[in-house]
Amino acid sequence: MPPPTAQDRRIRKRPSRLSGYRRLFGLPGAGAFTAGNLLARLPMGMFSVSAVVMIAGSRGSYALAGAVTATGLAATALAGPWVARLVDRHGQARVALPATVVSVLGSLALLLCVRYDAPDWTLFAAYASTATTPNIGGLSRARWAHLLRDEPDALHTANAFEQAADELCFMLGPVLASFLAGTFFPEAGTLTGAVLLLTGMLLFTAQRATEPPTTARSQAPSPLRSPGIPPLLVCFLATGAVFGAMEVATIAYADARGQRAAAGAVLALQAAGSCAAGLAYGAVRPAGPRLVRCLAATAVLMVLPWAAAGTGSLVVLAGALLVAGMATAPTMVTAMALVQRRTPADRLNEGMSLMVTGLLAGIACGSATGGWATEHLSPVAAFAVPAAAAFLALAAGVAGGRERA
To answer: Mind telling me which residue stretches traverse the membrane in this protein (predicted)?
Structure first.
């Protein structure tokens, strides 16, 4: 056998993607804070579905359920940047844990208000108090950025894992919420989500060695004054409306066919499509497609669920959601890359928080609009709302320019 060449030796030494992940979780404390973060993040995919099922089942109104969840998401959009600034200045453990306790108490208050038939206004007040929930994925990304600040390749691997974790939680969360509510009692999803959130945050914040240091207040101008940021904010707002409206429309559609318990699984397929496409997009890492192309693909594919709903088959709708979801992750990755490029470096967290705020506000608007369309038109007609929102996002992307991401 001939001796190995220099090229052979380089190939053998090249680390695989799997070894990169092994190295990440070999860092002291990384496995523990990741376990806590995933445990706390899973309820993020449960709470909205749990609230819609719980309220609609008790009060018989999807419009009320959509309005309540919209109010909570709108409150979260307003409180999110404020909570994030406090975390940056005072530390994760000192701020995130008390904020989580307030949020959990709000979820329990909502459960009790529904259970004991309290007036409708109490539902809005209780769900709005959950707005203090910290951006859990952002907390984890901040720890990776601190631990891997001098290792860009490893940080890229960590960010890829976090994106996959987001999709996984939003894929499993609705399934778990629907299963719990359908198998046990309507409030089971909300109760379980609250327990998981608090337990996960306790474990996460206990890992003080990996917590990033606090930062001083930045003197840079607001990210909103950076060129190209306002159109991107509109993109995130419209994309959030796609998610919010699709969720309410799908639950109502399944309920109208006596298959409410299957709604979570159907919604999970949309997240599964997004997760698969995101992994493929991350592996290829093309120099192309621009944000406008991703938004155009999203707009076209979001018409599919509307068309599928007209067939009257939940199975056909599930397949359409799987395909439609494949445009989501590439769009979000491309848009976030542009946010990072256009935001001042010392205010990057604020810029990212603003985009999350836009996304949550959009989800709130989409939930309310989808609930109204479901109740006043039909569950099938409600699927026109996410399709229209996707075309609005495309228009905003065109207005924001065609910069490559």
So the answer is: 21-40, 60-83, 95-118, 188-207, 228-254, 260-284, 291-308, 314-339, 351-374, 380-399
